[in-house]
Amino acid sequence: MGRFQFLLACALALLASSITSAETVEHFFHVQNLTVQRLCHEQVITTVNGTLPGPVISVREGDDLVIHVVNQSPYNITIHWHGVFQLLSAWADGPSYVTQCPIRPGQTYTYRFKITGQEGTLWWHAHVSWLRATVHGALIIKPRFGNFYPFPFPFEEFPILLGEYWDANVVDVENQGLATGAAPNISDAFTINGQPGDLYPCSQTGTYKLEVIQGKTYMLRIINAALNNQLFFKIANHKMKVVAIDAAYTAPYVTDVIVLSPGQTTDVLFTADQPLGSYYMAARPYITAQGIPFDNTTTSGIIVYQGAKSSATPIMPALPAFNDTPTAYKFYSNLTGSPLGPHWVPVPRHVDEHMFITFGINLAPCGEGSATCAGPFGQRLSAGMNNESFQLPSKLSMLQAFFYNNKNGVYTTDFPDNPPSVFDYTNSSNAFNQSMLFAPKSTKVRTLKYGSTVEIVLQNTALIATESHPIHFHGFNFHVLAQGFGNYDSENDPRKFNLVNPQIRNTIAVPTGGWAIIRFTANNPGIWMVHCHLDVHLPWGLGMAFEVENGPTPYTLPPPPIDLPKC
To answer: What is the pLDDT of residue 291?
Structure first.
């Protein structure tokens, strides 16, 4: 009997070990050109492993990821693991010339990092030029073995990637815009899992279809992988229950429409509780800037009930108007966090650093002599934060300069805590005030002590155009304490702070002509970008970076990998 109990104890210990042990998940990413048929034409695009979207990476919290990137394309490439904390693995974050130099054509580089303290839906994408239009895919983080979702387990799960498609070479589209100084050409279609859907020409046969069983509940892991557009998303005749955003659990929120800015993810549950039939899921843009051309089209996929007549015409949802700011704001502002859920982080109450960051569109001089560009006043469109227009280095990555203490000529540490002047930020009468429009190019960072808590007012401006900007933080999540329209009021708006269960994000769509206030703890040494996740604005300079100092051992940045690409 004693021997049996001993063997049983050993077996239980082994089982417990297998349940809690992490694994190493390894993938090969072959970045290569591919000819696809979309919108009645053939087009050469850049993909990973020959698919659009790219491969789904599925891991569990605690796993190690090893991704071998083989660049067989004609372009420089890096891969960013959007939303992954990269705790003590900043070398794997991916933004070109920030944490690494690009992987040149014909070269290979291996990303190695651990998934720590995160569950939910994230994604990966190229972080060089506009290549992320087609170089992207889902990164799904499930609970460790033995742990569970904080909601009933769905019958099945599906990643839904909302994308944006150009019937052109996206690198050429970007370069043409940069050469003329104007905004680049708008997209030709939106996509659901790589397909435009029934409402576009020559697209019906490829429309994404999802089969469901009546009465079952499903999880959709929705990712906005579009380059330049926020998107409304609906399923005809079905409600959705939001349970997570940006890989952070939320209090359940029931809605018939969601909206996502580029870079954001939203996990929803929906029950197939309608009569047997076919129902469109559809997405169209949410546009906040007035008088600017945009892709006013709708992408669709089809949810098909098992047993439904194949001849049934799918029902189309009534999507919000493209400029329906009240609906968008209601969704964004009503989400709250889940303090009883896994990996909840309470709001830090003591604040060490306060910053006020304004951002928007700017102008840059067209060039030498009598050159005329296609932007306002014959100048070149630009963008900036606190009147600094971010410019990437080219000879050394910023993280290498940080690690080797060789910052001279790479970046400076004088990014301002406040804009250079106080003005009526959201007053549209200032839109073309030339004294405010020009922002100098610079590569400036703000230095933070390890472990410090930072509170930032993110303030949109009306310069050139009044619009909503999705701001993405690399390396950190943040609590969204409050958001609103107009100029932030430091006396009255703090009364709106949610310090109990605010939503946690890595990307926030700051309300059009408005503000948001966020708080985070700088617990990850390295160089971390903060930038607008509209790819039309990032090359113009709408970004900055934080330099987080090393903490006490072992909270220090390790040496770079030996195969780190050279500039």
So the answer is: 87
What is the percentage of the chain residues whose pLDDT exceeds 70?
Answer: 96
Closest-CA residue to 131 (of 527, 476, 539, 410): 539
Instruction: Name the amino acid, one letter, at 27.
Output: H
Q: Is the dihedral of CA 398, 404, 407, 412 positive or negative?
A: positive
Local confidence band at 22 (pLDDT 50, 70, 90 cut-offs): confident
- Which of 178, 191, 171 has the alpha carbon at shortest distance from 45? 171
Are the beta carbons of 229 and 295 closer than 8 angstroms?
yes
Model confidence pTM above 0.85: yes
Q: What distance in Å separates the CA atoms of residue 227 and residue 234, rounded to the nearest whole number?
A: 20
Q: What's the CA gap between 222 and 232, in Å, rounded?
A: 11
Residue 330: enclosing H or E segment and its boundaries?
A: helix 325-334
Q: Report the amino acid identity of residue 520.
A: F
Integer-rounded Cα Rg, in Å, for the chain is 24
What does residue 251 show for φ and ψ, rounded to 5 degrees? -65, 140
Strand order in the sheet with 526-532: 445-448, 543-548, 526-532, 469-473, 507-510
DSSP for 490-514, please give it.
Answer: TTTGGGG---SSB-EESEEEEPTTE
Q: DSSP class of residue 172?
A: H
173-207 pLDDT tens trace: 999 999 999 999 999 999 999 999 999 999 999 99
Residue 131: strand, helix, or coil: helix
Dump strand ranges (E) for 56-107: 57-60, 64-71, 79-82
User: How far is it, in rounded angstroms, from Cα 223 to Cα 122?
Assistant: 8
What gap in Å lies between CA 26 and CA 28, rounded to an integer? 7
pLDDT of residue 85 exceeding 80:
yes
